[in-house]
From TrEMBL:
Keywords: DNA-binding, Phosphoprotein
PROSITE patterns xref list: HTH_LUXR_1, HTH_LUXR_2, RESPONSE_REGULATORY
GO BP terms: phosphorelay signal transduction system; regulation of DNA-templated transcription
GO molecular function (one): DNA binding
Modified positions (4-aspartylphosphate) in chain numbering: D59
Residue span, Response regulatory domain: 4-124
CDD domains, A to Z: LuxR_C_like (cd06170), REC (cd00156)
Species for this entry: Gardnerella swidsinskii
UniProt cross-references to InterPro entries, sorted A to Z: CheY-like_superfamily, Sig_transdc_resp-reg_C-effctor, Sig_transdc_resp-reg_receiver, Tscrpt_reg_LuxR_C, WalR-like, WH-like_DNA-bd_sf
Protein name: DNA-binding response regulator
Keyword Cytoplasm: no
Domain HTH luxR-type: 152-217
């Protein structure tokens, strides 16, 4: 079965060399779908199913967008593509950010063998991580898990912590005065927060706000359940993998 990958780097020479070397290091079923010099171009290709690859190698230092921004933008829309960050600098500078925004690996750009290894290793829902750095544990995750993380982050960030607490109390039937007493605030302050919540949730009353809040929580629970079910199907007998040197 053919597997497609793409390369994003603003240096045309690097693109040409990397494409050539990887074609020799990877098994024949791995085919380079495209190479582009900008993050914007990569995002455009990922918006169309026909041009969306299975894997993307993304340089961290580009002119139009940083590699971290590209990875995040792709992951927010896609829960399947395997995203591998690469850099000419110290991997420590980017590994944590790449993990947080949805990447599955961080590899030194001149380590062609490591790039090929990472690309193959990430098959079957495995995470390659950052093997150049031995003394730090980065929180890399699978595409599906990363997608859920970012989805939860976006939905939760609609409301700041205090307003989330207010909505939680409203959904439990608390009155404005009861919420004010519990949070140590004036009722007028609570009302101000409630009206801000209405605007953020695009509703006009408490009933609608509670319904929207419940729907938001429902989406999160559904996403987590889907991920759990997928994990059971993909990993019926999980086994611990042994890291190899970068």
């Amino acid at each position: 079965m053919q597997k497609t990958y793409a390369i994003v780097d603003n240096d045309p020479l690097v693109l040409a060399v990397m494409r050539n070397v990887l074609s020799k290091l990877l098994p024949s079923e791995y085919v380079c779908k495209w190479c582009v010099k900008s993050g914007v171009q990569a995002l455009k290709y990922c918006q169309v199913t026909k041009t969306t690859p299975d894997y993307i190698l993304i340089d961290m230092s580009m002119k139009d967008m940083s590699g971290v921004e590209v990875i995040r933008a792709i992951r927010e829309k896609n829960n399947n593509i395997i995203l591998i960050g690469m850099t000419s600098y110290d991997c420590r500078s980017y590994a944590s950010s790449v993990a947080q925004v949805g990447g599955q690996a961080m590899v030194a750009k001149d380590n062609f063998k490591g790039l090929a290894e990472a690309l193959q290793y990430c098959d079957n829902q495995k995470v390659y991580g950052c093997r150049c750095v031995r003394d730090v544990a980065y929180d890399f995750a699978t595409p599906q898990e990363s997608f859920i993380r970012l989805s939860k982050s976006r939905s939760r960030s609609v409301l700041p912590p205090q307003e989330l607490k207010i909505m939680d109390l409203l959904s439990k039937g608390c009155t404005t005065n009861q919420i004010a007493a519990q949070l140590g605030l004036m009722p007028n302050t609570i009302n101000t927060h409630i009206h801000r919540i209405y605007k953020k949730l695009h509703v006009s009353n408490r009933v609608q706000a509670i319904s929207a809040f419940a729907a938001m929580q429902n989406r999160e629970q559904t996403s987590n359940l889907q991920y759990f079910n997928n994990s059971l199907q993909n990993h019926p007998n999980p086994s611990q993998e042994t890291d190899n040197a970068c």
